[in-house]
Design brief:
This protein has helices spanning about 25-35, 115-130, 140-160, 170-190, 195-200, 205-215, 220-240, 245-250, 255-265, 270-275; strands at about 5, 20-25, 40-45, 45-55, 55-60, 65, 70-75, 80-85, 90-95, 110-115. By secondary structure, it is of the alpha+beta class.
Length: about 280
């Protein structure tokens, strides 16, 4: 089992009363370096890491993301993450309390790479937010301003995902169906490994679920189920001492061998090897 430290957001000092904080890359490196044994953490706030220039790697839910110029990484409340090795990059980490997170954030992929034009716009936005955060004005109004700018950031990232000036997130019918489906998978993934039961419970066809998933996340409905099961398996392997056989039963597999084959097909490694890879000496 890997030690995972729960992290709740705390303002940097007694005078800072905002629920949104912007940390530049040098300050972030200093904070991480102050605790050289810092490992996996589970956060209770939304986090955006934006690379203005250079490169940096970061682990979210046991997947390493290689960030380059104009890359933005989203870490959501409840996710497990770990800071990568020090590197010479510039940019920011934006910390946002859960109640101020824009509704569309959850529909974005974890890692968004922007083109030069959108990347320039997002860089300007972070520059503006960094300056605004230092304003000596009414704190409530300042939080409202920074929350609006965060919503603009999410909108810019959505444009980068869609590749057009019209975001896929704009179709309310498809978005609602996608959100309902994801919630159902979160609730029933231990029992239902196929798309058909979800379609039946939501009163639609499997084809309709596929259309919504393709439109919003560019994945199939089956992909959503597989990704969720694999993530839950990784979390249980990393955060508990449960045996592989016990985890297979918890995730709805009749036989441990079927779970091992499933996990290996989707990840390229076995559950036991994945668990071993997370140990400090690995």
């Amino acid at each position: 089992m890997v030690d995972v430290v729960p992290v709740r957001y705390r303002p940097p000092d007694d005078t800072y009363r905002l629920d949104i904080e912007l940390v530049d890359a040098p300050e972030l490196r200093a904070r991480v370096a102050s605790n050289p044994r810092r490992g996996f953490e589970r956060i209770d706030f939304q986090c955006f890491i934006y690379v203005r220039s250079g490169s940096y790697s970061h682990v979210v839910d046991f997947e390493t993301h290689a960030l380059a110029e104009h890359s933005c990484l989203m870490i959501s409340p409840g996710q497990v993450h770990r800071f990568g090795p020090p590197s010479d990059w510039t940019g920011w980490m934006l910390i946002v309390s859960g109640h101020l997170v824009a509704d569309d954030t959850g529909e974005l992929p974890a890692h968004v790479r922007l083109d030069r034009e959108l990347g320039g716009a997002v860089t300007e936005l972070f520059d503006r937010m960094e300056a605004d955060a230092r304003l000596l004005v009414d704190r409530q109004r300042l939080v409202q301003l920074l929350a609006l700018q965060t919503a603009v950031l999410v909108g810019r990232l959505a444009l980068g995902v869609s590749g057009t000036t019209t975001s896929r997130l704009a179709d309310p019918t498809l978005l609602t169906r996608y959100r309902e489906y994801r919630a159902a998978v979160d609730d029933q993934h231990r029992h239902w490994h196929l798309v058909t039961p979800y379609a039946r419970s939501l009163g639609c066809s499997a084809k309709s679920l596929n259309r919504a998933c393709r439109a919003i996340a560019d994945v199939s409905a089956k992909d959503v189920i597989v990704a969720h099961i694999v993530l839950e398996a990784k979390r249980r392997l990393a955060l508990t001492d449960d045996t592989v056989a016990a985890i297979s039963r918890q995730l709805g597999f009749d036989e441990a061998t079927n779970f091992v084959k499933y996990f290996r097909r989707e990840t390229g490694t076995t559950p036991t090897a994945f668990r071993a890879s997370l140990q400090p000496d690995s």
